[in-house]
Amino acid sequence: MNEITVWADIRCPWCWMGHRRLRAALERLGTAGREMTVVRRSFLLEPTGPDSLDRTVRGAALNSWGMSEARWEATRSRVAEASRREGLGIEMNEVLNVDSRPAHRLIRLAVSRGFDPEQVWDQLYTAHLERREDLTDPETLRRVGKGLGLTEGDVDALLGSDDFAAEVEADHREAVAQGVGSIPTYVHAGQALSGARSVDDLVEFLSRVEARR
């Protein structure tokens, strides 16, 4: 199968932009793009949950990650401007600093029920990065799950179990074993491309790899 594997975390704004850009790149490739299957895998920026007790990403950046106000503002501004160009509204000052494992488990559940992975990931990105919701809160997860097409009972059963936890952890371990150190990372035919890449970058990467096969 002609697959593109994407390693990403819903906490990562560049991953959401990359999600949209890959879709645009495949559309630009036309027939060749339609022959490629995208496989989305979980990468955990903080595998055991946030080290910082700060409620927001801004707070964590300033108090735990060693960023100055000036550096944070430059980062925030860069993300906001880039996201606007993608039709997104990401304002990192108010994005919550949360453990993304529950969200990845919810993604796994929805995909296992047959829902489109592209839409599932997009809705979880929207909830976290645009609506700035707490994706560790059960009520929020029930609401987001309902928006995906799941029932509250489905989400409650997930939260009351360890379902899909091992799969999420296995995704992350495999990424680390393959040398994935930054996200998003795109892997196609054994070749990898990482970071905040443009649509042009992605088209060039996929075309180059295909030409060598």
Automatic annotation (TrEMBL):
It comes from Nocardiopsis exhalans. PANTHER family: GLUTATHIONE S-TRANSFERASE KAPPA, THIOREDOXIN SUPERFAMILY PROTEIN. InterPro entries: DSBA-like_thioredoxin_dom, Thioredoxin-like_sf. Coiled coil: none annotated. It comes from the Bacteria. This is DsbA family protein. Residues 4-206 form the DSBA-like thioredoxin domain. Signal peptide: none annotated.
